Amino acid sequence: MSSETIEAGDRPLFRPLDADDPDPEATVIDSLCMNCHEQGVTRLLLTVIPFYKEVVIMSFACEHCGYENNQIQPGGKIQAKGTKIHLKVTTERDLCRKVVKSDYSSVRIEELDFETPAGSQRGEVTTVEGIIERAITGLSQDQVLRRIQHPEAAAQIDAFIEKLEKLKEMKEPFNLILTDASGNCFIENFLAPSSDPNMKITHFERNKEQNEMLGLFVQDCRPPEERENVKQEQGEAENVLKMIPEGSFPLEDFNKEVMQFKTDCPDCGVECETNMKLTKIPHFKEVVIMATNCENCGHRTNEVKSSGGIAEKGVRIEVSVKTREDFSRDLLKSEYCSLHLSELDCDIGPHALCGRFTTVEGLLMAIKEQLLEQSGMFYDSQDTDQKDKMKAFFDKLDDVLQCKLPVTLVLDDPTGNSYIQSLTDDVKDDPGLKITQYTRTHAQNEELGLNDMVTEGYQELLEEDEENEENS
């Protein structure tokens, strides 16, 4: 079928920008100019940005007064956790780091005790210097009138603007913290695919206020009377959803069954099917494997979830990859597992690649494919240093895949739910495999939500909370 006969409904809603596409399908809307109150034009473009997600790019221009404005809003889903990026700005080059921030991003500069709260600015693609410049522009508004009406306040603001101006001169390093409850924020890493010692990325569980800001509803946050109404509604719906009688569907049949459910393709947005199956990995544990195949765009992916809980200890697995036999080792990587290739100076964070059940070769190919897809973003055509560095990295990775360069693959999983197949009956007899268990740190337990988890006596605590709510 030719591209001319494809109906609009079969096309993905968010499509990558293509220089050869003469019609990017931008939506043009007449809008009121807030500067001169004449009629201007707003253009909307739905596209996909590598290293980020689906976005809606909005551009406004007024031909009467020349006022222009542009902003960006995430078009994809809100992430499961919020994201916090701590960047230490030490050089002038750090000021040029590209930054993607959503409507829910807050920006804080530690040294000045200055913070732009979430929701006060629109999402945008900018730089570290652009964030400082926007703060200066915002503080400079109405300064002329303020110097007349409130001279003391205007003098304080002028003094603070001078401090912001000095940040751009980079006489002293400063710390920039970007926090986004939706998880849709990004700061460029000049050392990619290696980790940046000046940048730390953490993920956190949202609190009640942050969920309300995002429009997310958590059942536990409801008042007692609303929770009681929900219980009554659930009781009325018993004729729709009923428990399966014990013994009518034994676990042995469930293990043989392949479940199917509808989902939206992450690439083109068209409805496709996801297959799910519970399987047992020898010498390890049971896992849930989910595979998605989109017939519309050809997207194929698989994801693995552990069917058990978090292990008592974390696990660190080191495997030497030298021969074709090493490439064929079965490998299970959980979504919390980070990867490290010391010979390539490459670090992959825990959430960069989803959980998957594959082989060592399949994992290395997945790393290459994701970096090839994303490395073109935020690298200017004149930035030869970045291009040369990425080319050298991919050349080394190709040598690894061709068994020309031996490497040591390190998997660090604080949940203990990752696994690599041993080539011998006893792991201790495998010279190319080393498995070490360790006790998680307080920070790792905090990220996994274990520090506040109550596994004993929780029923009594729940009853006490309900009594306190009734008394209040």
What's the helix count? 11
Low-confidence stretches: 1-9, 236-241, 377-382
Main β-sheet, spatial strand arrangement: 8-7-10-5-12
Count of β-strands: 24
Mean pLDDT: 79
Concise overview:
About 25% of the residues lie in helices and about 30% in strands.
Structural features, described:
This protein has 472 residues and is of the alpha+beta class. It is built from eleven helices and 24 strands. It has helices spanning 128-140, 143-149, 151-169, 208-214, 224-236, 251-256, 324-327, 360-374, 384-401, 442-447, 458-471; strands at 27-32, 39-48, 54-61, 68-74, 82-89, 98-101, 105-109, 114-116, 124-127, 174-180, 186-187, 199-204, 259-264, 271-280, 286-293, 300-306, 314-321, 330-333, 338-341, 346-348, 356-359, 407-413, 419-420, 433-438. The chain has a five-stranded antiparallel beta sheet, with helices on one face. The chain has a five-stranded antiparallel beta sheet with strand order 20-19-22-17-24. The protein has a four-stranded antiparallel beta sheet with strand order 1-2-3-4, with no helix packed on it.
Q: What are the SSEs and their pairings?
A:
Blueprint: E1 27-32, E2 39-48, E3 54-61, E4 68-74, E5 82-89, E6 98-101, E7 105-109, E8 114-116, E9 124-127, H1 128-140, H2 143-149, H3 151-169, E10 174-180, E11 186-187, E12 199-204, H4 208-214, H5 224-236, H6 251-256, E13 259-264, E14 271-280, E15 286-293, E16 300-306, E17 314-321, H7 324-327, E18 330-333, E19 338-341, E20 346-348, E21 356-359, H8 360-374, H9 384-401, E22 407-413, E23 419-420, E24 433-438, H10 442-447, H11 458-471
Antiparallel strand pairs: 1-2, 2-3, 3-4, 5-10, 5-12, 6-9, 6-11, 7-8, 7-10, 13-14, 14-15, 15-16, 17-22, 17-24, 18-21, 18-23, 19-20, 19-22
Helix pairs in contact: 1-3, 2-3
